[in-house]
Structures are given as structure tokens and as C-alpha cells.
Amino acid sequence: MNTPQSMFLGWGSLIVAAGASYYWAKKGIDERRSQQAKAGSRPTDKLDWRARIEKQKESPAPVSASVTAVAEAEGGRDASEANVSLGKKNPP
Predict the structure, then answer these.
(1) Rounded to whole angstroms, how far apart are CA atoms 5 and 3?
(2) Residues 6+ away with beta carbon under 8 Å from 2
(3) Which of 46, 54, 77, 92 could disulfide-link to 81, CB 3.0 to 4.6 Å?
(4) Is 45 helix (H, G, I), strand (E, B) or coil?
């Protein structure tokens, strides 16, 4: 049967491990975010989901490098035809 001391030791070590993990993960995430902000690859504006959808509609989705490479290798076809050769469906 668990004694009060072993329960305290178990819960205490669990709380300490969780706190250390949270601190370590948060530090890494904050560092990555600051690097992205300095590089300009992270947007600084805070948008709700409606504004994000509108922003996506305004700018077309980028074509991936693999689709572009296949298009160039197969005679310069456009990306929609290259998607078919990669087995991807074309967007509507």
C-alpha cells in the first residue's frame, strides 16, 4: 500500500518533471518564433480565423518545389498537369 511519503514523492517528482518539460519546450518555441520574426517568415499581425481565410483567398497557394521540378523535367508543363503525374488531384 502507498504511504503518504511515497505519494508525496511520486506526485512531487511528476510536477517537477512536468514543470521542467514545460520550461524547456517554451524556451525552444520562443527562440524559434524570434528567429522566424527576424527572418520575416513569421507574420506579426494577429488575425482571427475569418481574416486568415480572406488573406488566403487573396494570395494564391505556393506551388511546392517537387511539383515545379516535375513540371520542368517533363517539358515545362504547368503545375496542374504535374500534379496529375505525381498522383495528386487538381484543386477545383
Answers:
(1) 5
(2) 10
(3) 77
(4) coil
